[in-house]
Write a structure and sequence with these properties.
The structure is a homotetramer. By secondary structure, chain A is α/β, with parallel strands linked by helices. Chain A has 15 helices and eleven strands. In chain A, the strands form three sheets. A six-stranded parallel sheet of chain A has the order 7-2-1-9-10-11, sandwiched between helices.
Chain lengths: 348, 348, 348, 348
């Protein structure tokens, strides 16, 4: 059996979009076909969102994106006012970003591990695998514990995931060991982060431990309806919105749904004016992840003038699309939204 | 513009597995290759779960399965003690099953609508599209309202989605117009249903309306941590478990995670002994939905002796796998678990 | 290292569609959604081809279908006048079907071999792998040699692949060891088989050896233009045609193209009236394999009234579609075409 | 109905890899995960092929690559000694590259055409569609005719596709209207091009017309066995080989097979030392296009030290991989092979 250290030595390094001007490459793709043309159009739509002074930008994250080396791109998007709210799976925000904020790393798995034939050995070594990437499970348990401690120190009441993640930002500001963190940077920039399925991640483990320890006493609970209510309020207070979606799943569904929720609350909110989705999911299984943005327009969620699906695995497309918008530089003239402050009266 | 009635006339009809003995077909596939052999092995593993007297069976549902005509299969699985708990996306349980329980239907879309070119027209007609299936949006709004009313009549406190869905079962028993309902049948059989991302569905709309109306007053909240805690408790009280997963997403992640959660609560729960997943998701984007069950074993979640992925769109594979197990008849000797009762002391 | 015999012991067994009446299952799928409804529609279209007295049926085979257990279905289709011509990759016809006609078998690979981690060991043992299926490479070499011998005994001139495959049928009739063979049965029923890319298979190896041995002397050559000309002639002599395509690739392209070729030869042949394709290929890479049959209609190749793509791996869909048409029994009233005879004057 | 000119106005423009130094971007992807890391490794392997003085490089092309804007990349690879032989589908070489060499263009289709709902209209306008790209069918017919004329002027005997394509190069040198052509540039650089399934393309139409006109007289035929024999001879005369495969299908199969063919001719040729494949094809349908390069090693075709699959649609990955190798500049020290000259004694 190999040693743990042999497996956990070569770390994932995050793509720095600020160092690579991909504008000419993306522009050259604009007159090609298939994914390249779609990607160029998506990049243009994202840039339009940034230029549109009335448009709030919601970034949706599904899939293992942070462990895959895309973290710094999202951090730089926050730093440069290229995003106003984030809706994500719990894994990206807690198990991967908060985890790295605590000073831990993701590791490159050697090719043969992808086969799955060595997963028993990894199990014995307490190493977790995400396709071609490895995680030290002992470090992940520390991450679970810290989320439990954060819960222990909160007033026992229902929280939105946004409120809880904000507390994680507070924690990182005090105890963090790596400033390159979405949770930290979003906290500082008042960019709210929502994880509508918050319990199926490291934070869920911490919260289960918290609730178990509290027994019949008052405890912290995670109100997913409040998540939805809060994001809907942001929609109601903003004229226009655009979605930059990476992967599908709950974040896509949740962010699209707020248009309908606003309508139900009696406000005639416009459909999302811009929408971009990067995914390899197939439309033919009828599931939401691969469903077209045109289909979303039948539900009254997404307008169809500026929408584009891009058929690509995310690690190839995100550096090009986000990098294009970064180097176009229109974020320089964009006001920061600090949307979290709009929600504080609600939560205080 | 076509008339609404022209679009909404041909209804989806649910596959009745009790009428088709597919055992010989599935057995013949066992000595072939590719998906057919994998499907036959998956059917055998599901049958083993049913025969294993110690094994509790958790059914995971992601994707638009109910609107696609698979509802009756799941209803019959509940009726025949072939499942002990369900973890699902909200859409399947609320927007589609509860919706049909209220007497509404799903409609077959004609081929050309799949293109998306007519979604503007559908939008104007208040018709929602799921790939090749149509929904009357006005009926869906009624469904939203009813979930809001259910919330209005509950004590204002944090609920697990399971508790809330149980109340939906109570509602259907009184007011339902279609006895073929997962929510209703699960209520009657004390099969708990969890929707860990409950807010991104019709129930979410109802709950947002409820919370908005309550303002600063006490209100119903949906505690996703409690969901996780409850399902973990079921794992802790049961010797062995098996997963029958259709699609990936949050249900897959949530159900797999309870092994780790039990461990965190100090109980050395065994990994899921059996696991089957039907999906067309691709392993190469590194996301959870397509990740192998071997990969889950590196996380200590799934044992690898009886695990099988099946590469097929669900409407083809589910009738064969579930039908195989039904006609093998081993459920006749299986005790009902009535797992909801294990959770009542917790929730009361 | 494991022994060869340990790997090569469990044989692939071919699905016998005549023993499973799948008509009720397929009919039940007709009112569902996604792949099941598409499959039911495709089965209906194939049945329409059989009922249409004017329609010649061309079966297209791509992918490893014979080694996967689908051989007997195609053999039974020939026996029961459900197909009039076959266009295939060389591998299906030579390496797999002719190979089995010689008495050799395909073997079931155990799960772990799919990982690829044991391919070096297989290489050393002279075992070839197709995903989850194994082949004895020594037997495949015998197959190569026999095709070389067949070439050695022919007059040295250009042959269409159809002519050459016909000679393989003659060979099997004399020396074959397994009567369940597409090549043999097609020979007996005068169903022409075309492999437009004949050289990239076992026959190619035999022919290279033949040409190498002949040096500057006259030799057998394989005229792919003649293939195209012959199939085009069949189209020109037939009123209507239907395509039953399994997989995409060269067979799909070749069979669709004959409409245009007939037009170029001055005859206004109608587009293929019926077309069904089973594939998991994705439309988004722009390649022919996943391109829609609607797209083919822009090229004037396929009519759009009766066309249907089915998103499914072939081993699941073929038994249901072909089995449906078989048990509907409309082939009983169908005249045999014996299309090979139409081509004999050309080739003699 | 729209006018033809409205559809055929915006031309596809080919990516110029010489103008975009993507080396830093690709290097940054080397420490990420999923497709980006695989792509970086593939780029490195291709660069190794170029640096390896003993290695002949075979480029395999499947899918609609030329019409998609990748033509100039392949032209520049020929010009800069980055490739020694090409194996392709006929469509890329004849319908698309030779077609553009004649002065014709490919056109950008507007988004809505992708739906297929307008293919009837396109058909009436004599416009052919490839996903999001349009072709003037009248121009394509001219291309068909020219290939027929080329055949008419040749000695009537069996030709390899390579020989025929060489004559197309001669034609372009005399009559071509666009110097940016793979066929032309390969002719000038003595880079042989093989289309093993030559008949299912524009050249096939020309050759069918030729054979039809010749009737019983001697005629040009296309010997696919000779193709295979010729490429095998190149393998036998070269020490080492590497494959750069874009898409799968016949080109992949054909190029891999020459190792076995060489062995059958009694020469112990080494396996392909390097192999890279860009594809979105799925391994789970068992077809060759998506089969792993490890699987090919069980057949003794590809060595496993330097092999890499990249999961990406080609228009995204090819500019990065080929561009990386171009800007690394190791081709500057690479000798030209002029492999066509090795085959002339055979064909003369």
């Amino acid at each position: 059996m190999a040693d743990r250290k042999q497996y956990l030595k070569d770390t994932i390094q995050h793509f720095d979009m600020t160092r690579h001007n991909v504008v000419p490459v993306v522009e050259a793709m604009n007159k090609m076909a298939f994914s390249s043309r779609d990607l160029a159009r998506a990049a243009d739509i994202y840039d339009r969102m940034i230029k549109d002074k009335d448009c709030g930008i919601i970034l949706c994250l599904a899939g293992s994106l942070i462990s895959a080396g895309l973290k710094k791109i999202f951090v730089d998007m926050i730093r440069n006012r290229m995003v106003d709210a984030i809706v994500s799976t719990g894994a990206n925000i807690v198990d991967q970003d908060f985890f790295e904020g605590l000073g831990f790393k993701h590791y490159i798995a050697e090719e043969k591990l992808k086969s799955g034939n060595f997963d028993g050995e990894l199990r014995d070594l307490m190493i977790d695998r995400i396709y071609d990437t490895l995680i030290d499970e002992e470090e992940l348990r520390i991450c679970d514990e810290i989320t439990g401690k954060i819960a222990d120190e909160l007033d026992p009441r229902p929280y939105s995931s946004r409120e809880f993640i904000r507390e994680m930002g507070v924690y990182l500001q005090k105890h963090g060991k790596n400033p390159e963190s979405i949770v930290l940077e979003a906290f500082k920039a008042d960019v709210p982060i929502f994880c509508p399925a918050f319990s199926d991640c490291s934070a869920g483990f911490g919260l289960v431990a918290h609730q178990h320890a509290r027994g019949d006493q008052p405890k912290v609970s995670l109100d997913s309806a409040k998540d939805f209510y809060e994001l809907t309020q942001l929609k109601m207070k903003t004229k226009e919105t655009g979605l930059f979606m990476i992967g599908g799943g709950v974040p896509k569904n949740f962010a699209q749904d707020i248009v309908v929720a606003a309508e139900i609350l009696g406000q005639d909110a416009p459909m999302h004016k811009y929408a971009v989705q990067i995914t390899v999911a197939d439309v033919r299984d009828g599931a939401l992840s691969g469903s077209t943005l045109k289909e979303a327009s039948s539900w009254g969620k997404v307008d169809t003038v500026f929408e584009q699906m891009v058929y690509s695995e995310a690690t190839l497309a995100v550096p090009l699309i986000a990098g294009y918008a970064y180097h176009k530089g229109n974020w320089k003239n964009r006001a920061e939204r600090r949307w979290s402050r709009l929600l504080e009266p609600v939560t205080a």
